[in-house]
Write a structure and sequence with these properties.
globular, alpha/beta, single chain, 15 helices
Length: about 575
C-alpha cells in the first residue's frame, strides 16, 4: 500500500532552522563498440520519392512552439550493407570478419509527430574522446540516419564535465559536442544535453573511465573531505560532497558556482541550437546524474540482484559532519551530531538483522527521524540550489529542463526501505520520500526522469523477494500525476526483448492515461552494436511506432536478407 504522506519540514520545525542561512536560497543569487559499428560498419544510402504531388499541411510541435509546415508525403528507402571487413574511420576494423548482411528497410511515413510519446536514444558514453573529438564519425552519421528513419525523435548526449573543463578551471572545450549537435541537426534529430557533473566508470582500467576534471582531482587530494566518506572512512569520488556546496573550495569558487558557470558557458556556446535542435537540458545532481548520495558505487547498482546492498550513509566528511553537528546542537541534542546511525551493519546484511533498519528498528525512533530528516533535507537543498541556478541560466530559452531520481527498488517491500534511506530518499512504508523532491522540481519547471520502466516484479522477486521495481515506479508516477509534472522514462538495462518493451508501454500508460496536458517521453539507454542487429532492430522500431500510437508515423519493414556468414551476437 502506498501512503502519500506529505511530510515536509515546515518553517516552524526546529530541524528546518538548523540549516545554515546560505541554504535558504537567495532569489538574486553514462563506446568503442558502438551502434552499427558492430558486427560491421554499414554504408547507408537513402533516396526520397514523393508518392503524390499534392502537398499536405501539418503542424510540428516542439519546445520552441508550434510551427506550420508544408511537406510532401515521402517514401524513404534505406539500403544498408554490413561488411565487417571495411575499417572504420577510427583507424581499425570495427569487428572481426563475420560476413555480409544485406537488408532493406522501407518506410512510408508522414513526418507529423504531434501525438504520441517521443523516443530518444542515449549515445555511447565515449562518443567524445579525451581530445574532444567525435569517435567513429562515419559510423555515428550512419547510426543517426538509421535512428531518424526509424522515427526516433532524437538522441541523449552526455556532456562530461571531466572532458569539457578538464585541464583548467574556466577553460572549456565544447568542440566534440558541437559536432554531435550539428550532425543531429543535419539528420533531423533533436538532442537532449545532459550536464554530467559526475565521474563515469570505476578507474583508469575501465574502458568507459571519465573522471572529474583533473584540477578538481588535485583539490580533492589536497582536501580529501571534498569527497564523500562512509563510517569506515572509505572515500567516494564519483561526485563532490554536498557539505561543501557553497564553500569556495574550487580555486575560489564553490561547487554550485562551478556547475552554474559550466551551464552558463554551455548556454552561450550552443545558443544557436537551443530550442531548435537542443530541446532538453538534463541537469546532473549526483552520481550517475541522479539526485542521490553515492550510498554504494554506481557500477554496483546495475547488479543489485547479486548483492542487495543496503548502502552506507555518506555523512562522514568534515563538511557533512559540521552540518549534522550544528543541526543537533540547534535542537539541544549534541550527542546526535557525532556521526551517522549505529547498527547499520554490513552493506550486504539482511536488514532484519540490523538494529537500525529492522522493522522495529531505530529508524522509526526520534533519533532516527532526526537523522533521516537532516540527511534527506541536505539532498533536497542541493537539488534546489542546482535547480535554481539552471532555471535562471536557461530562463527565456525554449528548452525543457529535466532532473533524474534513482530507481532504488531492492528493499521496497520492507518497512524501512534501507537502500533508499542511505541514498537520501526518506521513503518508508509510513512516509513518502519522493513527493517533496517532485514538488521541488515542479517549483522550478523541471521534468521528472526516472528509470526501471522495463522491469517487472515477477522477474525481480525470483532473485530478491523484497524487491519491487513496479511498486517503486507506481509510487513515483502517482506523485507525478498529483503534482502535474511532465515525465521522462528510462530503461535500467539495454533490454531489447518484446516483454521489456511491452512493460515500458504499460507503465507509460499508467502515468499518462486520462491526462491530456502532461507529456511523456522515453529515453532508450543506450545506443550500442546490439541495437542494430536484425531481430533487435525490428523489435525496437516496432516499439518506437507503438510509442507514437501508430498514427502519425507509419512504417512497414520489408526486409530482404542475404546472409553470407553468421553474424556475431
Amino acid at each position: 500500500m502506498i501512503l502519500l504522506n506529505r511530510l515536509i519540514l515546515s518553517p516552524n520545525c526546529p530541524l528546518s532552522q538548523c540549516f545554515p542561512i546560505h541554504h535558504r536560497l537567495n532569489p538574486n543569487h553514462n563506446s568503442s563498440s558502438m551502434a552499427i559499428a558492430s558486427p560491421s560498419t554499414p554504408t547507408i544510402s537513402a533516396s526520397f520519392r514523393c508518392t503524390r504531388a499534392q502537398s499536405t499541411r501539418f503542424f510540428l510541435r516542439s519546445s520552441a512552439g508550434i510551427r506550420s509546415h508544408r511537406t510532401r508525403r515521402c517514401r524513404l528507402t534505406i539500403s544498408s550493407r554490413l561488411n565487417s571487413s571495411k575499417p572504420s574511420d577510427a583507424g581499425g576494423p570495427v569487428s572481426p570478419d563475420n560476413g555480409d548482411l544485406q537488408y532493406e528497410l522501407q518506410h512510408e511515413f508522414s513526418p507529423q509527430r504531434s501525438k504520441g510519446s517521443p523516443v530518444f536514444v542515449t549515445l555511447p558514453v565515449d562518443v567524445v574522446n579525451y581530445s574532444g573529438k567525435v569517435r567513429r564519425w562515419k559510423t555515428m552519421l550512419q547510426s543517426f540516419r538509421a535512428l531518424a528513419a526509424a522515427g526516433v525523435e532524437g538522441v541523449v548526449m552526455e556532456v562530461w564535465w571531466g572532458l569539457v573543463e578538464r585541464e583548467e578551471p574556466g577553460v572549456y572545450n565544447w568542440q566534440g559536442y558541437i559536432d554531435i549537435v550539428a550532425l543531429a541537426r543535419r539528420c533531423g534529430l533533436k538532442v537532449q544535453a545532459v550536464m554530467a557533473f559526475h565521474q563515469c566508470g570505476t578507474g583508469p582500467g575501465d574502458p568507459y573511465w571519465i573522471p572529474l576534471p583533473q584540477w578538481v582531482i588535485e583539490e580533492t587530494k589536497r582536501d580529501p573531505d571534498l569527497a564523500f566518506s562512509d563510517r569506515l572512512g572509505r572515500r567516494n569520488t564519483e561526485y563532490l560532497s554536498l557539505g561543501c556546496d557553497i564553500l569556495p573550495v574550487l580555486h575560489g569558487r564553490s561547487p554550485i558556482q562551478t556547475y552554474a558557470d559550466f551551464m552558463r558557458n554551455f548556454r552561450d556556446t550552443f545558443r544557436s541550437f537551443l530550442g531548435l535542435t537542443i530541446t532538453v537540458i538534463q541537469v546532473g545532481m549526483g552520481p550517475a546524474g541522479e539526485l542521490r548520495y553515492p550510498s554504494c558505487p554506481s557500477h554496483k547498482l546495475t547488479r543489485t540482484w547479486q548483492s542487495h546492498e543496503l548502502g552506507e550513509f555518506q555523512c562522514y566528511d568534515k563538511y557533512m559532519l559540521a552540518s549534522l553537528n550544528a543541526c543537533a546542537r540547534e535542537i539541544g541534542m549534541h550527542e546526535w551530531g557525532n556521526g551517522g546511525p549505529i547498527g547499520t551493519e554490513n552493506l550486504t546484511h539482511n536488514p532484519e538483522h540490523t538494529e537500525f533498519f529492522k522493522s522495529n528498528g531505530s529508524w522509526n525512533t526520534p533519533y532516527g527521524k532526526f537523522f533521516l530528516e537532516w540527511y534527506s533535507r541536505m539532498l533536497l537543498l542541493h537539488g534546489e540550489s542546482i535547480c535554481k541556478e539552471a532555471e535562471s541560466i536557461f530562463r527565456g530559452i525554449e528548452v525543457n529542463k529535466l532532473a533524474k531520481v534513482a530507481g532504488i527498488h531492492w528493499h521496497y517491500d520492507t518497512q524501512s526501505h534501507p537502500s533508499e534511506l542511505t541514498a537520501g530518499y526518506y521513503n518508508t512504508w509510513i512516509r513518502d520520500g519522493y513527493l517533496p523532491i517532485i514538488r521541488m522540481f515542479c517549483r522550478y519547471g523541471f521534468t521528472l526522469c526516472s528509470t526501471c520502466f522495463e522491469m517487472q516484479d515477477a522477474d525481480e522477486k525470483q532473485k530478491n523477494p523484497v524487491s519491487s521495481p513496479e511498486g517503486f515506479l507506481r509510487q513515483l508516477l502517482l506523485n507525478a500525476r498529483i503534482c502535474g509534472i511532465p515525465l521522462t522514462g528510462e530503461n535500467s538495462g539495454a533490454s531489447l526483448d518484446d516483454k521489456s518493451f511491452r512493460q515500458v508501454l504499460r507503465m507509460s500508460k499508467f502515468y499518462s492515461d486520462g491526462l491530456e496536458n502532461l507529456p511523456f517521453s522515453f529515453n532508450f539507454v543506450r545506443m550500442e552494436k546490439n541495437l542494430f542487429q536484425y531481430d533487435n532492430w525490428v523489435r525496437f522500431t516496432r516499439f518506437v511506432r507503438q510509442m507514437s500510437n501508430g498514427n502519425n508515423f507509419r512504417a512497414k519493414l520489408d526486409f530482404s536478407m542475404k546472409v553470407a556468414a553468421a553474424c556475431a551476437c
